[in-house]
Amino acid sequence: MQILEKTELKALKKARNLGPKKTISLLNKKGLTGRGGASFPTGKKWEFALKQKSKEKYVICNADEGEPGTFKDKFIMQKNPETLIEGILIASETIGAKQAYIYLRGEYENLKSKLEKTITKVIRKAKTKVNIEIILGAGAYVCGEETAIIKSIEGFRGQPYLKPPYPPVEGLYGKPTVINNVETLTAAAHAILLDNWNSLLRLFCISGDVTKPGVYELPAGIKLSEAMKLAKPKNPVKSVYFGCFGGCMPYKDIELTHDNICGEDCVSGSCTMIVVDNTRSIVDLAYVISKFFAYESCGKCTPCREGSVRILLLIKKIRQGKATAQDLNLLQELGEHIGQTSLCGLGQSCTNHILTSLKHFRKDFEKELR
Fold it and tell me: Are 12 and 149 in a shared domain?
């Protein structure tokens, strides 16, 4: 796998020789974009932070990975932590940061000791003044959002805040901050060093009703049927969920590109696929996912805090056979309003699964009506 290739500090040496501006230019030329879901050009993000005139700057590695069905960052931290640390050092030295943090998901606490040893070893070999500290998360899904991570590291409750200003301009402690996830920072080292680095290769997490769940390195644009052959579904596939926030679509043999997936009103996000076979009820899945979002809402904004609970109660009513067609219409309306009026990405995407389910599998809901 390309993502597991060891760079052995050669990428850092090359970045130092190039200098910040040429390093950023190289990343832009290679086409590296964020692997956490937003797909923002990595070079541009670093450039924004580089241009800020501040004595203090920070780099945060987002290793929170709270999205259900997503486990690629854990895979990288287990198999290739050295290149991840090198990527963090490259980002730090490029923008002029002397302090970096790895915000590690609380459930990944067992990885902390190995990561700390790797950090010590790599920093000693790199002869750098950059300090890297691991911050252990407390299990909040919302801390996958960049502004919530900032608040959590600062010692406050992990809740998002309004942007702008954006973190590369004013982030942690009010200073310019670059936030990238594990896969992005690891890929940054590869993109700088390797002439044959392929920007189309992505890590796909495939789980659900399959016999071979796991992390697959596949090119963007691969046919969905090819991915399914690798994961080997247990039964005929009914639907594919792109994580909990990405929505769902009926199984179609489409090319897995951003445009194709978004054309189904879904979000490709971090390339997570939860496979659902024809033995499952979409209404039951909607209930489980809605329960998750109602629990994980940070409570800061009213649409998400109150709306996620109302969504859950409506689906519970449908499952109990007490709902009418009017309730389905209300479910649709609530889903649209919550997505349009919530503060952060959690609230804005927490009803994607509802809206796409109603669009593609409305009959599953109508069967449960009174």
Answer: yes
